[in-house]
Amino acid sequence: MRARLEAVRVRMTEWGRDPASVRVVAVTKTFGPPAVRAAVAAGLTHCGENYVEELCATRAATDDLAVTWHYLGALQTNKIARVAACADLVASLSRDREVARLATLRPGAPVYVQLDVTGRAGRNGAPPSEVPGLVARAREAGLGVRGLMVVAPPDPAGARAAFAATARLADALGLPERSMGMSEDLEWACRAGTTEVRLGRALFGPRGGAGGLA
Predict the structure, then answer these.
(1) Whether the model pTM is above 0.85
(2) pLDDT digits (tens, 9 = 90+) for 94-119
(3) Where does residue 112 rank: exposed (0-12), middle (13-18), buried (19+ CB within 10 A)?
(4) What CA–CA distance (Å, rounded) separates 110 from 99?
(5) CATH number of 2-204
(6) Domain locations in the chain?
(7) What is the radius of gyration, based on Cα positions, of the chain?
(8) 49, 99, 207, 212: least buried by Cβ within 10 Å?
């Protein structure tokens, strides 16, 4: 785990970023509590989950650790209450009804607004044209909008364009945080000025594989 984290920091440095300026969120999806403990032992303090059931269960099993928990998955209306109870930061706000519900359940909750630059059906996130209005309404509702989050397309050109668009929009909206980059594309995210990368395989190895922590 420590060696993998050091390899991530080398990748950041090679692409012109001081690793101390980029927050690493350890995405523990399917890895469970052992991965959280390994991440904390290596010096990480932020973990993320895509499913609320895993988030609540893993948080409960590691409540002796000082961890800031990020919820990264789509917000289903019938599960927002559990997300509000278990997540320290909701990174995937993308619709007006989520704003209203979350603001009612947890006034002042820290959030990122997620944007979708692909336009593909089934992808979570708001189109870039709708993000300014969504950010404004979330602020008016009393939520603590800290930044933007994006999941980039898998091809390098698409990733570069997505990260550049996210950074420009965050700058225009006065948002300091931009959560951009995962295990496969963190270099392009660093080049575009990310403040946070969300890493699973780069830290823990393949999910369910011999090199992982499953």
Answers:
(1) yes
(2) 999 999 999 999 999 999 999 998 87
(3) buried
(4) 12
(5) 3.20.20.10
(6) 2-204
(7) 16
(8) 207
pLDDT bin (cut points 50, 70, 90) of residue 208 is low
Nearest-angstrom CA–CA distance, 193 and 212: 29
Residue 23 burial by Cβ neighbours in a 10 Å radius (0-12, 13-18, 19+): middle
Dihedral angle over CA of 117, 114, 171, 134, nearest 10: 100
